[in-house]
Design brief:
The N and C termini lie far apart (56 Å). It contains 12 helices and no strands. It has helices spanning 2-15, 24-46, 54-85, 94-123, 129-137, 143-167, 186-209, 218-251, 259-268, 279-289, 296-318, 321-342.
C-alpha cells in the first residue's frame, strides 16, 4: 500500500500542474525547446545566413587584401635577394647569399605581424587557409565563413604573385616558388611542413584564441613563429653541411673545394621545403609559374594536417574545464550575435 502511495506521489507532479510543478506538457515543451536550440546552434555553426551579411564579405575582403600584400612582400623578398646577390659579372656575392636567408625569414615574419595586427579586429587576421581551416574545425568561425576565407585567400595568393610578376624581371623568378631540396624526399618534406605549421598554429591558439594568452602581443609572437619556421625550413641543412666541412677540414690538409665556394653552395642550396606553412603563399607563385601541381600535396595537405593537429591538441589538452567553458561561451555569444543580426 505504501508503495502505491509513493508511486502515486511521484506521479502527481507530472499529472497535476495546479501548483506550478512540471507536467508532461512542460516536458514536451522543454524537449521542443532543446531541439530548437540544437537546430539553431547547427545553423549558426554552418553559417549559411552569413552569406547575406556585409560583415562576412568585409572580413573576406580584408583577408584577400592581406594575403595579396603578404605574397607580394614575402615572395618579393626572395626575388630581391636574388637580384642583390647577383653582381654585374653574373656571379654571386657570398656575403649576400649568407644574409639572404635572414632577409627572407624576417620579411615573412614582420609582414605577418603587421598584417595580423592590422586586420585582426576585422576578420581575425588569419592570412592563411591553414589557420582558417583550423578555426573552422574548432568552431571559432562558421563553416561558410571558413570556406569563403580559404577560397579568397587562395585567389589572393595568385593575385599577389601575378602583381609581383608584372613588377620584376623574369630571370630572377626561376626559384620564387616553393620546392623541395634535391636531397629531401617528399615524405620528409611533408613531415617538415606538418611540424612547422603545428608550431605556428600552436602559437596562434596559445596567444590569440586562448583567453589566458597574451592577445595584445599575439601578432608579434605569430610573426616571430613564422620567421623562426623560415630559419628552420631554410637553414637546418646548413648546419649539417657545415659539420661535414669541419670534418674534412680536420681530417684532410686539402679540400676538394674552397671554403668560399662551400659557403656559397651552403646558403644558396640549403632550403628544405621553403617553409611554406601557408597553401596560399605556395599556390600563388606556383600557379603563375605554371607548375602548381608539383608537390602540391606537401604544400597543401602538410599545412592543413599540421594546423588540425595543433588546433585539437591545444583545444583538448590546454583549454579544458572552466577555461573551455569560457572560450566556448565567448564563441557562442559571437555566433549568436550574428544570428540575431540575421533575424
Amino acid at each position: 500500500m505504501s508503495n502505491r502511495v509513493e508511486m502515486q506521489s511521484l506521479g502527481d507532479p507530472l499529472l497535476n500542474d495546479d501548483d506550478g510543478s512540471a507536467t508532461y506538457g512542460d516536458l514536451d515543451e522543454r524537449t521542443r525547446t532543446c531541439g530548437e536550440k540544437f537546430r539553431s546552434k547547427i545553423k549558426i555553426v554552418i553559417g549559411l545566413g552569413e552569406i547575406a551579411t556585409w560583415d562576412l564579405w568585409r572580413s573576406a575582403i580584408a583577408e584577400l587584401i592581406a594575403v595579396v600584400i603578404f605574397v607580394f612582400v614575402g615572395v618579393g623578398s626572395v626575388i630581391s635577394t636574388n637580384i642583390a646577390n647577383t653582381n654585374a659579372e653574373g656571379g654571386t656575392d657570398v656575403g649576400g647569399a649568407v644574409s639572404s636567408i635572414t632577409v627572407i625569414a624576417l620579411t615573412h615574419g614582420f609582414a605577418i605581424a603587421v598584417l595580423a595586427s592590422s586586420i585582426g579586429h576585422i576578420s581575425g587576421g588569419h592570412i592563411n587557409p591553414a589557420v582558417s581551416f583550423a578555426m573552422m574545425l574548432t568552431g571559432n568561425i562558421s563553416i561558410v565563413r571558413g570556406l569563403v576565407y580559404m577560397s579568397l585567400q587562395i585567389v589572393a595568393g595568385a593575385l599577389g604573385a601575378a602583381l609581383l610578376a608584372l613588377c620584376t624581371p623574369s630571370e630572377f623568378r626561376q626559384d620564387w616558388q616553393h620546392d623541395l631540396h634535391a636531397d629531401v624526399t617528399p615524405i620528409q618534406g611533408f613531415i617538415i611542413e606538418i611540424v612547422l605549421t603545428f608550431f605556428l598554429l600552436f602559437t596562434i591558439f596559445a596567444n590569440a584564441v586562448d583567453q589566458r594568452g597574451n592577445s595584445v602581443m599575439a601578432p608579434f609572437f605569430i610573426g616571430l613563429a613564422v620567421a623562426t619556421d623560415h630559419f628552420m625550413g631554410r637553414t637546418i641543412l646548413a648546419y649539417v653541411c657545415l659539420r661535414v666541412w669541419y670534418y674534412h677540414l680536420s681530417h684532410s690538409s686539402t679540400l676538394p673545394f674552397s671554403p668560399p665556394f662551400f659557403l656559397l653552395l651552403l646558403f644558396q642550396a640549403v632550403p628544405l621545403t621553403g617553409a611554406s606553412m601557408n597553401p596560399a603563399r605556395s599556390f600563388g607563385p606556383a600557379f603563375i609559374h605554371g607548375d602548381y601541381l608539383k608537390n602540391y600535396y606537401i604544400y597543401w595537405f602538410g599545412p592543413l594536417v599540421g594546423a588540425t593537429g595543433a588546433a585539437f591538441v591545444y583545444r583538448l589538452i590546454f583549454i579544458h574545464g572552466d577555461q573551455a567553458e569560457k572560450n566556448f561561451s565567448s564563441v557562442t555569444k559571437k555566433l549568436e550575435s550574428i544570428e540575431r543580426k540575421l533575424q
